Amino acid sequence: MFLARVTGSIVSTQKVASMKGHKLLVVEPYRLDTDSRERLLTTGRTFIAVDTLGAGEGDLVLVCQGSSARLTPETKTLPIDAVVTGIVDSVHVEKKSVYCRKEEG
């Protein structure tokens, strides 16, 4: 599982039948700044993840990848490799807040 920022969405009118009706998001993984350990930084990579929660652009989310992505009731029959499993409210590291959703908006 990893933290990621939703940076966009995908529209695909041609896809396998089991994927119809599922929202696809572009997510960019984030990591803890190893120098200060007080903020999150992008990894510079992107993934496509199925959204089962209603996340939106700009949200920080939890993403499960690999075979674990198919372990939710909503995704168990889908041909996917990544799924949004949570929308993050806050992140604390060593008793310091490195992210707070309320402060973002």
TrEMBL record:
Pfam families: EutN_CcmL. Its main location: other. Gene3D superfamilies: EutN/Ccml. The keyword ATP-binding does not apply. It comes from the Bacteria. Keywords: Bacterial microcompartment. CDD domains: EutN_CcmL (cd01614). The keyword Metal-binding does not apply. It is found in: Bacterial microcompartment. This is EutN/CcmL family microcompartment protein. It comes from Aporhodopirellula aestuarii.
